[in-house]
Each structure stands twice: as C-alpha cells, then as structure tokens.
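Deliverable D2.4 — example input (structure tokens):
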C-alpha cells in the first residue's frame, strides 16, 4: 500500500538548519558493531525453535520470489509503506533525542530504501547497474494500538543507565524499557543507551512465538543525520537503522554468517562473495574470495562500512525484502497505522468448533482510529445481533455460520465478514449415509476424537479395521457384500456400537 508522507514532516525537515555543537560518543567502537546474530542466539536459547521459524520464513520468501519470477511480465512495482513507532528510552536528557532527530532518521530511511539518497552518485559504475529502488517507504504511526491518535514516538524515562543485547529489557516496561506495539501493525524501533560498544540489532522474520521481541534496537547516538544527530563520529548519518531494518526484512550480512570465510554466503545472487566485513571507508577495490575484477561491495548497506560509505541495496536484496513483506510480514501491508484509517477485524477467545448449545466468546480486534460503535451479525446465533464490543453468542443447531462485524466512529466505518466462521456439530456421533453403499462417514461431536473403528459382520467377523486420530473418518466399503453390519467405534469418550445396512 502507498501512503503519502505527512506534510508536517516534510516541512519540519525543510526548515533552516539550527545551530548545534557536536558531541563525542561516550564510547567509540573500533568499527561497526551489529549484534543481530548474537541476539538470534539469545532468542534461540530462550525459546528453542526460533531458528526453525526463521528458516520457514526464508522458505516462504523464496517461494514468493519463484512465483513472481514465473509471472514477471504481469508484475508491476508498487510502493509499500511501513508504519513505524520509535520507543525512546532515556536516563539522561541527552539520551532523550529530539523529535527532529527522529524525523531526520525517517528521511534517511525513505531516501535509502527509495534510492533517492544524495550519495548514490558515489556508487561505483560497475555496481550501479545492480543497485535499485526498493519501493519501500516508512511513516510515523498516526494511531496507537488502542486507536488513539499518536505521533509515532513514545518516550520513557528509565532508571536503567545502559541496555544490553544479552537480554530483552529494553523491550519490557517492567524492566525499564518499553513494551512493543502490535508487530503486525507496526515496525517497533527501540532507541536507548546501548552498552558493550554495540550500535544496534534486529530480529529476522519468523519470530512468531515471541512477538514482543520483534523489531529493531538502535543506540541513540546513531539515530538520524547531522545537524540533528550531533554526535561526532562515523555513525551519524542514520545508516545503522538502514542496516538493521535490512536484517528485519531478512537480509544477512553481505559476507555471510561466518566472520571470515569464503565458504558461506548471504544467499543473494548479485552481491559478490566476500571474505569478511569491511570497516571504515575502504579505498578502491577490495579483492577477496576470487571476486575480481570489482571485489567486495563495501558500499552495500549490509556491510560494516562507515555511514558515509554506504549507499546501495542490490536488486537481489530488494527482491528478497519485498518477498518477506509479502509472506511472513504480509500483515503490515494492510495496516492502517499510517493513514489514520479504520479496519474491522475479530477473533474468538474460545474454539469456533463447538457442539450445539455451546457458546462462543467474540473479541474485537479492529485496528486504526478507535471506533465508537460495534454492530455484530451472527448467522444461526443467539443473539442474532449485538452492539457489545465483545459479545458472547449461543449456537443451538448444527451448521456452519457466517459472522459479520461493522465498526464506526463519527467519520468512517469498516466491515469484516467471515463465512463459515463458526462450525456447530451435533451432540452425538453421526454415521451416514444410511443405508450405505461404497463408503461410510463417521463424525464425532466437537471436542471428541475417534480412535479406532471396526466393521463387524453378523457372525462377529471383523471385515474392516481402521486407526483414526481425528474427529471425522471415512470407511471404504466397496467390495463388501450387502447385509447388516455393526460399527464398533472407540473414541476419546469411550466405545459405541452402531448397526448399519449396506446395499448393492
């Protein structure tokens, strides 16, 4: 989705530059220090399986790329805008960076991802053809998760003097940090005083079991560009955020996973194989891993070069980031946090597969500007209509039923309809058709599973035997002679016997 950058933001960035004095960083790293890989190891230790989730997200992105390649002639590039919230954590006034510094960072991101950055002229001619416009933009969120108006910036004064990559305290209000906003609606960026000479880190796509950790962390002295970033060092042009958001969109470091090896890769075809990170601002061509004649692409945002030397994403990297936004991060595509819109949505606090006579508790999950009214329509439910925000509904008869929610405020409305959303079963085991011929279908009530099914003839001989681990099952009765049979059905609630007839 494309959204327009707010006019007030453009005006602020175009104001005459104020006078400022540069400050030196509290501690200066020897070179760029990204702790994204280190943070992934921490998450895996805390919740084993995170890396498997990330691998599945990678596979989903590659599948998207393959599908797009097959339909390339029909594709048209569209701009995706990502809503951003900056969580500023400060222990001293200096750490409480200004709104203008954050606006500056947003401008850097939009320039870097759209390749309108002024320093793109520094891309060597031999790499220029590989560089591209990602068609990705960023906006400050205009509403918070509660539907209240927001400027996309939260500020929290903290007693914590320094945050560490060895834990997630910067992301926890209970530990002196700030809680994440809904990761499906926003890109969370935490800004604070980061220790251990770390500039920042990010989470890769696929951190599904810990959404409260998803996002980017930045040292406050890396945010934005001069004159709003007044730190006198090589990381004052806002490229740390560009680098970390590249990780958040699935990109690896350009040299691969190992710190010094020609045997690994970032899995992007148009980035040269590279032995190790490049620091500071290399001069000329840096050869490694047989990547002549042009050598390492140290101008890439995913290397470790200084801010002043980074100036491009490749078309291959862009294709991968776009694929991530259309697969594991696709919910962001329908976020209304940039536009101040309204989008109806709902879920249930209970199972939607129920027995006749049971109830379903519905939960409003709408996003955007806070609605002031709710109108629910429940096919087959009692009540059939409700104006409560989170109603409870009883379903008396078996069937599959539609649910419709319309929300509104004084300026707008939105409707969401989900067909066959609630399935209501009988309270007893159902066997059909009766009489049977070529097959027999068995269906237990909701919450009950079949375990084992036997078909027995009139003299006690077992004609069919089938293990089952679901609520429904089908028995193939082709070839059996006509006659009367007995079904012995073992389930999670006991054993039942049903008499059936097979006709020919």
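Example output (designed residues):
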């Amino acid at each position: 989705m494309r959204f327009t950058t707010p006019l007030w933001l453009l005006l602020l960035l175009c104001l005459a530059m104020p006078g400022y004095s540069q400050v030196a960083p509290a501690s200066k790293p020897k070179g760029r220090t990204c702790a994204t890989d280190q943070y992934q190891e921490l998450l895996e230790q805390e919740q084993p399986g995170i890396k498997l989730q990330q691998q599945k997200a990678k596979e989903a992105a590659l599948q998207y790329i393959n599908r797009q390649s097959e339909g390339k002639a029909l594709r048209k590039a569209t701009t995706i805008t990502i809503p951003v919230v900056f969580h500023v954590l400060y222990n001293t006034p200096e750490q409480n960076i200004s709104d203008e510094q954050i606006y500056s960072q947003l401008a850097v991101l939009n320039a870097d991802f759209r390749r309108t950055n002024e320093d793109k002229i520094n891309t060597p001619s031999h790499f220029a053809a590989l560089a591209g416009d990602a068609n990705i933009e960023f906006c400050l969120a205009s509403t918070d998760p509660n539907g209240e108006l927001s400027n996309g910036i939260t500020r929290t004064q903290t007693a914590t003097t320094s945050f560490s990559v060895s834990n997630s305290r910067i992301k926890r209000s209970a530990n002196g940090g700030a809680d994440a906003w809904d990761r499906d609606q926003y890109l969370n960026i935490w800004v604070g005083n980061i220790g251990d000479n770390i500039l920042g880190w990010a989470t890769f796509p696929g951190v599904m079991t810990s959404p409260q950790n998803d996002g980017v962390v930045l040292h406050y002295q890396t945010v934005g560009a001069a004159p709003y970033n007044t730190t006198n060092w090589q990381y004052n042009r806002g490229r740390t955020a560009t680098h970390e958001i590249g990780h958040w969109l699935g990109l690896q470091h350009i040299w691969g996973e190992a710190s010094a090896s020609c045997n690994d890769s970032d899995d992007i075809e148009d980035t040269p194989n590279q032995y190790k990170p490049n620091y500071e601002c290399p001069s000329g061509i840096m050869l490694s891993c047989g990547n002549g004649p042009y050598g390492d692409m140290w101008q890439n945002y995913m290397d470790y070069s200084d801010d002043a030397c980074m100036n491009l994403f490749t078309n291959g990297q862009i294709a991968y980031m776009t694929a991530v936004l259309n697969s594991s991060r696709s919910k962001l595509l329908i976020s209304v946090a940039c536009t101040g819109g309204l989008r109806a949505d709902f879920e249930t606090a209970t199972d939607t597969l129920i027995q006749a006579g049971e109830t379903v508790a519905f939960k409003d999950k709408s996003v955007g500007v806070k609605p002031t009214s709710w109108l629910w329509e429940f096919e087959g439910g009692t009540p059939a209509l409700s104006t409560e925000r989170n109603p409870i509904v009883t379903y008396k008869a078996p069937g599959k039923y539609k649910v419709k929610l319309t929300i509104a405020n004084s300026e707008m409305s939105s409707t969401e309809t989900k067909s066959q959303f609630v399935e209501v079963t009988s309270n007893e085991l159902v066997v059909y058709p009766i009489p049977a011929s070529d097959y027999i279908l068995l269906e237990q009530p909701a919450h009950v599973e079949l375990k084992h099914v036997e078909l027995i003839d009139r003299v006690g001989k077992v004609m069919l035997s089938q293990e089952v681990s679901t609520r429904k099952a089908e028995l193939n009765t082709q070839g059996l002679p006509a006659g009367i049979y007995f079904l012995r059905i073992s389930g999670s609630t006991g054993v039942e016997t049903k008499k059936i007839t097979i006709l020919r």
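Residues 1-22 have pLDDT under 50 and may be disordered.
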